[in-house]
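Saturday, quiet lab. Running sequence design on the structure tokens for the scaffold JK sent over.
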């Protein structure tokens, strides 16, 4: 009697390993093809998913507002934590458990490169604020000045040590996997730390320039979700089947209106608009500058007589800049999400992680934020920061670039020059 091999074929080690390797965030694209376009308006479980998404969003919003209230350094710490989660999700994306078992210490090598890049990027960005923080302590000032001076050398040799470590761990029949992981690690560093550099720079230019762009992306995302949830019928792009034109257009309108209103609200708080020049944690008080001083525009007579009770309206100049930011946030920044969707489809995963219920991983939430942070910094430097040198800008450059002894020499020489000019007059 012959056995029925077709009905009771034993599972091979390969198939068992594949089942073991399947993660919770993997997505069955073959099944999705049979279901057709999965628009939110046709999703039978949409209310359950909306409830989960809403609850986790409220928790994130509460924590985010608390950190914003605490100030610049706490926001910086939040950015660092988010980056570590993003790096972890991306490191794990192409990992193979079987190969990693044969490479002890290879995961530690990836994090060695990560923290070397962190030291390089944040050291360059925060050097100015660090010097301003320790100017009162002469010994500490000298130590910090030396660390800043040799920071690039330290980072370079840390990186070279990582490369040597990588070369010494190469194993036969695993070269392709190891070099693939090496290249993937460097791509992650470029993606994560490029946007982080601009994000941190925005924070120290004033929390306003970090908070407003981040808020616009959040508003655009929520508005697109709800418009697509209730009205979405026309697919927008094949990479994201649940994205619809109704959600895209509705979110653009809501984001534009929100930008104008939020810029006015945020612009009335000095601790949001003042730039941070050191690493202290106290609240800031400063001259808000012309961007945050209201300008008054008269209303037409018929409008003030029949519709509105006032004759003029006060608008902060920064509100016009906010409209430009909203245009980018609603029309171009979403392509960061489309890029991430295409990337996930290429690797056949639904989300980068499952850290946030209803949202996926931190990388899923930060895809558009990364694009927006870079644009916000470039826009601020190009159209907001004065192009001419000011006294404050020159003083800040002196404090950052010169040692205490060099500053004293400069002070003496400037005094001599001023005395000579006074004599000539």
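Result came back. Writing it out in full:
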């Amino acid at each position: 009697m012959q056995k029925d091999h077709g009905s009771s074929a034993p599972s091979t080690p390969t198939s068992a390993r594949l089942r073991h390797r399947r993660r919770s965030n993997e997505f069955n694209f073959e099944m999705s093809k049979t279901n057709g376009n999965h628009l939110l308006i046709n999703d039978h479980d949409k209310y359950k998913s909306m409830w989960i998404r809403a609850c986790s969003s409220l928790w994130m919003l509460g924590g985010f507002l608390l950190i914003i209230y605490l100030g610049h350094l706490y926001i910086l710490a939040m950015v660092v934590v988010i980056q570590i989660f993003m790096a972890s999700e991306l490191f794990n994306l192409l990992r193979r458990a079987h190969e990693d078992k044969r490479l002890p210490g290879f995961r530690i090598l990836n994090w060695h490169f990560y923290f070397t890049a962190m030291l390089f990027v944040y050291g360059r960005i925060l050097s100015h604020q660090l010097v301003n923080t320790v100017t009162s302590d002469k010994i500490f000032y000298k130590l910090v000045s030396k660390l800043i001076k040799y920071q690039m050398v330290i980072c370079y040799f840390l990186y070279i040590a990582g490369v040597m470590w990588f070369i010494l761990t190469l194993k036969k029949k695993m070269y392709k996997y190891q070099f693939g992981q090496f290249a993937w690690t460097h791509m992650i560093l470029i993606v994560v730390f490029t946007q982080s550099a601009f994000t941190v720079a925005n924070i120290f230019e004033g929390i306003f320039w970090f908070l407003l762009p981040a808020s616009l992306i959040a508003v655009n995302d929520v508005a697109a979700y709800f418009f697509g949830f209730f009205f979405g019928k026309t697919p927008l792009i094949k990479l994201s089947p649940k994205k619809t034109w109704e959600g895209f257009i509705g979110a653009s309108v809501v984001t534009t209106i929100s930008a104008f209103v939020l810029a006015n609200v945020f612009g009335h708080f000095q601790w949001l608009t003042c730039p941070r020049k050191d690493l202290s944690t106290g609240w800031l008080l400063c001259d808000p500058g012309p961007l945050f001083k209201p300008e008054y525009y008269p209303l037409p007579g018929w409008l003030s007589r029949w519709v509105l009770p006032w004759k003029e309206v006060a608008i902060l100049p920064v509100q016009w800049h906010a409209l430009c930011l909203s245009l980018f946030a609603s029309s171009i920044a979403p392509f960061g999400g489309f890029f991430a969707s295409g990337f996930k489809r290429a690797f056949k995963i639904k989300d980068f992680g499952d850290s946030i219920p209803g949202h996926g991983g931190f990388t899923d939430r930060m895809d558009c934020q990364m694009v927006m942070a870079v644009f916000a910094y470039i826009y601020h430097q190009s159209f907001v920061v004065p192009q001419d040198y000011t006294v404050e800008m020159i003083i800040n450059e002196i404090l950052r670039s010169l040692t205490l002894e060099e500053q004293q020499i400069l002070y003496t020489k400037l005094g001599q020059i001023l005395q000579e000019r006074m004599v000539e007059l």
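Notes for JK: Residues 207-388 form one domain. Residues 1-24, 29-37 have pLDDT under 50 and may be disordered. Ask whether to fix the surface positions before the next round.
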